[in-house]
Write a structure and sequence with these properties.
single chain, about 5% strand, mainly alpha
C-alpha cells in the first residue's frame, strides 16, 4: 500500500517498513510522534515571545534521508504534494533561494511521513486530494471581500457587478 503514495517505490517502501514496521500505531501513538522520531517535525526556538531560527532535530539516520529523497521524487509528479511544495517555496523566499527549496522539501517529507502513518495505521491505500486542493479551500466570497477591503484601504472606490 505504500507504493500508492507518490514518490515511494517498492525499494523505498521496503526500507520504510524495515524502519517503522507494518503497524506503526503499535509503537507511535500518533503521526506527530512518528514525525518527531524521524526528525521531520519543525524546529521551535522561542524566547521572550520572539520566534528565532529553530533547527529540526536529529532523527532516524536511515529514514530521514530516505523520506527527503522520496519527497524530491513526489514533487515531480502531479498532485497535492507538488502543489504544497510550490506553495511553501514561494512562502519561504522563492525559487531563486536555495534555502527556501530545502525548507520546503523537508516540509514535504513531513507531509509524506504523515501520509505513510495514515496509510499503515488505517490499512487503506493513499488517495491524492489533487493539485487543486489548495485552490478549492479558498471561499470565493470571502476572497472578494478581502480584495475589496484592500482596494478601499489604498483609496480606490470599487463597485461589484455580476458577470454576464
Amino acid at each position: 500500500m505504500l507504493t500508492t503514495i507518490p514518490g515511494i517505490g517498492p525499494i523505498a517502501a521496503a526500507a520504510i517498513i524495515s524502519e517503522i514496521g507494518t503497524h506503526p500505531a503499535e509503537f507511535f501513538a500518533s503521526d506527530a510522534h512518528l514525525t518527531s522520531w524521524a526528525g521531520l517535525c519543525p524546529g521551535n526556538h522561542e524566547s521572550a515571545g520572539k520566534r528565532k531560527h529553530g533547527t529540526p532535530r536529529k532523527g532516524n539516520q536511515h529514514l530521514k534521508p530516505l523520506l527527503v529523497e522520496a519527497a524530491w521524487s513526489a514533487v515531480r509528479t502531479e498532485g497535492r504534494l507538488r502543489a504544497r511544495y510550490h506553495r511553501l517555496v514561494l512562502r519561504f523566499g522563492g525559487y531563486r533561494n536555495p534555502a527556501a527549496k530545502k525548507k520546503a522539501i523537508i516540509a514535504t517529507a513531513h507531509t509524506l511521513i504523515v501520509n505513510i502513518w495514515n496509510v499503515l495505521a488505517g490499512d487503506t491505500p493513499y488517495t491524492d486530494l489533487g493539485a487543486g486542493f489548495y485552490d478549492r479551500r479558498t471561499d470565493p466570497e470571502r476572497e472578494t471581500q478581502r480584495l475589496i477591503a484592500k482596494l478601499n484601504a489604498l483609496g480606490h472606490t470599487v463597485t461589484i457587478e455580476p458577470a454576464a
